[in-house]
Amino acid sequence: MTDLREEAIRRLREKRGFRQHLVVYGVINSLLVVIWAVTWTGYFWPVWPIAGWGVGLALHGWFVFGDTATTEKEIRREMERLGDSTTVTDP
């Protein structure tokens, strides 16, 4: 039961970390857009940090929300692929 609790705590921390990352991304990039608007240099240069950081944010989100737990079936399939089929038993 403690393993499940530790896993739940880890997942909650990962989700909180992603939300914090998202807020920082929004605040900083909004500030860059405001700086661009105030200086009015014409060329919308904030697109580069927005896009670059956005890729990192998307990957962070994918690792947090797209990562699924490994199932017993996947473990058995990988063991069979590696040639260790002698220890694999079908349920």
Summarize the structure in words.
The chain starts with a helix and ends in a 10-residue tail after the last helix. It has one domain. It contains three helices and no strands. Helix 1 (2-39) packs antiparallel against helix 2. It is mainly α and 91 residues long. The longest helix has 38 residues, at 2-39.
Present the secondary structure layout:
Blueprint: H1 2-39, H2 47-66, H3 72-81
Helix pairs in contact: 1-2
Mean pLDDT equals 87
> What letter string, H or E per element, gives the SSE order?
HHH
Tell me the span between the first and last alpha carbons. 24 Å
Number of domains: 1
Relative helix content: over 70%
**Uncertain spans, ≥5 residues at pLDDT below 50?**
none
Approximate shape = elongated
Structural class computed from helices and strand pairing:
mainly alpha
Oligomer: single chain
Strand tally is: 0
Strand percentage lies at under 5%
